[in-house]
Automatic annotation (TrEMBL):
The lineage of its organism: Bacteria, Bacillati, Bacillota, Bacilli, Bacillales. Component of the replication restart primosome. It comes from Paenibacillus lutrae. One of its GO terms (molecular function) is DNA binding. It catalyses: ATP + H2O = ADP + phosphate + H(+); Couples ATP hydrolysis with the unwinding of duplex DNA by translocating in the 3'-5' direction. This is Replication restart protein PriA. Residues 595-781 form the Helicase C-terminal domain. Zn(2+) 2 binds at C572, C575, C590, C593. Keywords: ATP-binding, DNA replication, DNA-binding, Helicase, Hydrolase, Isomerase, Metal-binding, Nucleotide-binding, Primosome, Zinc. SUPFAM superfamilies: P-loop containing nucleoside triphosphate hydrolases. Zn(2+) 1 binds at C563, C566, C603, C606. Initiates the restart of stalled replication forks, which reloads the replicative helicase on sites other than the origin of replication. Recognizes and binds to abandoned replication forks and remodels them to uncover a helicase loading site. Promotes assembly of the primosome at these replication forks. It is an enzyme of class 5 (isomerase).
Length: 870
DNA sequence: AGCACGCCGACT
DNA sequence: GTCGGCGTGCTC
């Protein structure tokens, strides 16, 4: 038997499967999706089995054997292996990178090398008998310690570098390589009363593997969990044993009596806590052999100490009911269908999700719920835990690596059937998916910025198609890509079906939104960042004891330093970007390369003293608030104040408890939050996003404004929203203020069509960087030409086959940031329509240029715009 | 990514 | 004459 294995080397040359023979001992055990240890060159690496065959085309003499299987059960399903392949093609990433993204970080391999003394007995070499004193010192050192790294050894014996090398050559020392997982199951000492048969949920996972580099030994399959010994013998009467103890051992008696009444395993710490005894008391009993003490795998449960109030399905409104019925019918027919559920904020989408999930579970199928990271708040978790209890696993970035690993193991063990989580939860190893829900589907956090640059929506659609499952994309402001797909395509029906929930559940009206023209403010002499209207609003809330949310988009508002006399702007010497002022350290820093310098007192160009930082960070808004309203209590939420684990929740809880008057923050305050006493929402500057050089900027602005507008007056108190802007006439501002999605779409779609942007085409961005401009430009031009050439050929081929395919290449031009870390950057953009063959063309051209690029130390990177490929 | 094999400058 | 620089190429 032979296995095709993708090895853990994310490089172009190794981005293919390698063949290995499968030892007979593994035959019943290895599967597609197994994580294995395989010899690769001189080392042993982690790999993933992607195929199993009875034949191989590789010369049998060159074949090596699979060394280990790393898990009791394959961590990937066949489906996920197939998905990984699809991802590598569509997003142009290495296949391992895609597969690795599906697993919790704990399963990522850690490789380490260390020096060991050779086994003298086995070796029997006569040279062993005569050792120099210095050799003996080295051997002694190594035998005292374990896992000594080569560099540590050389550091410990700085004089003996040559000697150590000789010893390695002679075989006195061996270099070994180890591989282990980054995280592992947590173990806890557990007390077993005698006579209790232990049920291990899972064979102990094989988490540690050692190999001698030269050794070609046969693999040892993971052992079963150690045989139950004392615990399964004939039961001892604990109560009677207690009598045998001397009178002064009353603590031990207590323990025995407790255990005789509760004949079940108990965590040592729990027992100690309950009976107020020390560890030595219990260990004493274990030494007598009356009880057994041993390490058992336990689950870390981040929600262990929380009680979740059980919630019953709520009665649905007519709107909700009809949406639910449609989804339920699709589920009942086991059909694949993507629904776009457009429901205004407060229309009760979550209740529809919950009931659809119930239906899905009744059918014995599983459900995945994706929410943007930011809205995975305790309230959201509570709602799902309250309805589905222990059937729910929660996955988000605030869990520790260990906690996340345990949630994932619950899924592997089939202990849960619902997963709620952020982007990466779309990969959970379910086998019978019936429903995938993506809440706030327009959110950009569904896009992964690092490789593999996937979009959770694409992946969800792919998996749902595979499983015959339904997808529900929910949003008040759907992405244009999704809206476009609800419209009938030429000659066919629509790809997605649109479901609408236009009214709010309790009939609460949406708050009035006032657009404030900041140019007007300036003209009438108000130089403050608060308009008179917003100022008045704040004043009123403070008087009435109501709360305010203030939103500031930091992007495009970075605090740069400028000389007011000559216009000099402090820039990074390595990147073409202005430096950002950091108040805490009083330094100027570059966000791209980390360069830092002291804040200057005088302008380096003209010597003027009139140098100051411009732009408005959240700190500056806070300062101004305190100045204008002495005594005001402000909670500021931005990257500076929320990096600490749990700080996010802490601030929000404080605000909810009315320990502050104003919540001030960036995007993160806009999303999914629901505070009853907030009656005023202010957007400091609506157009910062609008001015970004991004074709989606109008869409982003509309979405953001609509979302914040929904934050005010969610409960009994009526709300009010002020949007400050320098472009009050822009359609994204106007339509958002009227809560009018359709009007926005009607303006935006023609623009996109006219300029040939998504959703009318798809984009691939190719960026080339080099230290020298002339060579860079030449290469960029050649590459663009070649892309055009192949694009035209493909277009011709497609036309003759009657396929719809269009491809255009823009550029090359300098990138938006033309230099980073002393490397110049050029880019070209591939626009295409039709089947995804453009990515194949790009990847072919990149292959053609790879050799040349490597020679010149040129870096070429590709970004598939992962917004909607399917 | 590692690591080995291989061909040209400063040292015993 | 050798040690060692990192260029090139392979890993089942």
């Amino acid at each position: 038997m032979y296995a095709k294995v993708i090895v853990d080397v994310p490089a172009k040359q190794t981005n293919r499967a390698f063949d290995y023979s499968v030892p007979s001992s593994m035959k019943g055990w290895i599967e597609v999706g197994s994580r294995v240890g395989v010899p690769f060159g001189p080392r042993v690496l982690q790999g993933f089995v992607v195929e199993l065959h009875d034949t191989t085309s590789v010369d049998p003499k060159r074949l090596k054997a699979v060394r280990h299987i790393l898990d009791p059960a394959p961590p990937l399903t066949e489906e996920l292996v197939e998905l990984g392949h699809w991802m590598s093609e569509t997003y142009l990433c290495h296949e391992v990178t895609a597969l690795q993204a599906m697993l919790p970080g704990a399963l990522k391999a850690k490789y380490e090398r260390y020096v060991q003394v050779a086994d003298i007995e086995a070796d029997g070499s006569p040279s062993m008998l005569l050792l120099l004193p210095s050799q003996e010192r080295i051997i002694d050192y190594l035998q005292r310690k374990t896992k000594v790294k080569m560099e540590d050894l050389l550091e410990a014996f700085p004089e003996d570098g040559g000697l150590i090398r000789d010893m390695l050559e002679e075989g006195l020392l061996l270099e070994k390589q180890g591989m282990k997982d980054r995280g592992s199951a947590k173990k806890a000492l557990t007390v077993f009363p005698p006579g209790i048969k232990i049920k291990q949920n899972e064979a102990a996972s094989v988490s540690h593997h050692e190999e001698t580099r030269s050794e070609a030994g046969s693999p040892v399959p993971a052992a079963e969990s150690p045989a139950d010994s004392a615990a399964s013998r004939e039961p001892l009467n604990l109560a009677r044993l207690a009598d045998e103890l001397p009178a002064r051992s009353h603590k031990q008696k207590e323990v025995l009596l407790y255990l005789s009444e509760n004949l079940k395993p108990i965590r040592l710490t729990e027992l100690m806590d309950k009976l107020q005894v020390g560890a030595s008391t219990v260990k004493g009993l274990a030494d007598r052999g009356w009880i057994e003490l041993r390490e058992v795998e336990v689950m870390r449960d981040p929600y262990a100490n929380r009680h979740f109030e059980e919630t019953k399905p709520l009665p649905l409104t007519d709107e909700q009911q009809s949406v639910y019925d449609t989804i339920a019918a699709t589920l009942d027919r086991r059909e694949h269908q993507v629904y776009l559920l457009q429901g205004v904020t407060g229309s009760g989408k979550t209740e529809v999700y919950l009931q659809a999930i119930s239906r899905c579970l009744e059918q014995g199928r599983e459900a995945i719920v994706l929410v943007p990271e930011i809205s995975l708040t305790p309230q959201m978790v509570e709602r799902f835990k309250g309805r589905f209890g222990d059937e729910v696993a929660v996955m988000h970035s605030r869990l520790s690596a260990g906690e996340r690993y345990d949630e994932w193991r619950k899924i592997m063990r089939r202990q849960v059937r619902v997963v709620i989580g952020a982007r990466s939860a779309v990969f959970v190893p379910f086998r019978k998916i019936g429903l995938i829900i993506i809440d706030e589907e327009h959110e950009s956090s569904y896009k992964q910025e690092e490789s593999p640059k996937y979009h959770a929506r694409d992946v969800a659609a792919w998996r749902a198609r595979y499983h015959g499952a339904a997808v529900v994309l929910g949003s008040a402001t759907p992405s244009l890509e999704s809206i476009q797909r609800t419209r009938p395509a030429a000659g066919a029906g629509s790809e997605y079906k649109l479901l609408m929930m236009p009214s709010r559940v309790a009939g609460r009206p949406l708050p009035p939104v006032h657009i404030v023209d900041m140019r007007e403010e300036l003209r009438s002499g108000n130089r403050s960042m608060f308009s008179r209207a917003l100022h008045r609003g704040l004043e009123q809330r403070l008087q009435k004891g109501e709360q305010t949310v203030l939103l500031l988009n930091r992007r495009g508002y970075a605090t740069f330093v400028m000389c007011r006399t000559c216009g000099f702007v402090a820039g990074c010497p390595h990147c073409d970007i202005s430096l950002t002022y950091h108040q805490v350290s009083r330094t100027l820093r570059c966000h791209y390369c980390g360069y830092a310098e002291r804040q200057m007192e005088l302008c380096p160009d003209c010597g003027s003293e009139h140098i100051r930082h411009f732009g408005t960070g959240t700190q500056r808004v806070e300062e101004e608030l305190v100045k204008l309203f002495p005594g005001i209590r402000v909670i500021r939420m931005d990257v500076d104040t929320t990096t600490e684990k749990g700080s996010h929740e802490k601030w929000l809880t404080m605000f909810r408890n009315k320990q502050a008057d104003v919540l001030l923050g960036t995007q993160m305050v806009a999303k999914g939050l629901d505070f009853p006493d907030v009656t005023l929402v202010g957007v400091i500057a609506a157009d910062t996003v609008l001015n970004l050089p991004d074709f989606r900027s109008a869409e982003r602005t509309f979405q953001l404004l609509t979302q914040v507008a929904g934050r005010a007056g969610r409960h009994t108190l009526p709300g009010e929203v002020f949007v400050q802007t320098y472009t009050p006439e822009h359609y994204s501002v106007i339509t958002a203020s009227r809560h009018d999605y359709d009007a926005f779409i009607a303006e935006e779609l023609p623009h996109r069509r006219q300029l040939g942007y998504p959703p009318y085409c798809r984009l691939i961005l190719v960026t080339i960087t080099h230290e020298q401009i002339p060579l860079l430009v030449r290469t960029a031009e050649a590459l663009t030409m070649r892309l055009r050439e192949l694009g035209a050929m493909e277009q011709g081929r497609a036309a003759s086959c009657g396929e719809d395919f269009f491809m255009d290449v823009l550029g090359p031009v300098a990138s938006p940031i033309p230099r980073i870390k002393d490397r110049y950057r050029f880019q070209c953009v591939v626009k295409y329509r039709g089947e995804a063959s453009a990515s194949r063309i790009v990847s072919r051209v990149l292959d053609e240029f790879a050799e040349r690029a490597a020679k010149e130390k040129m870096l070429i990177s590709v970004d598939v715009d992962p917004q909607m490929l399917m």
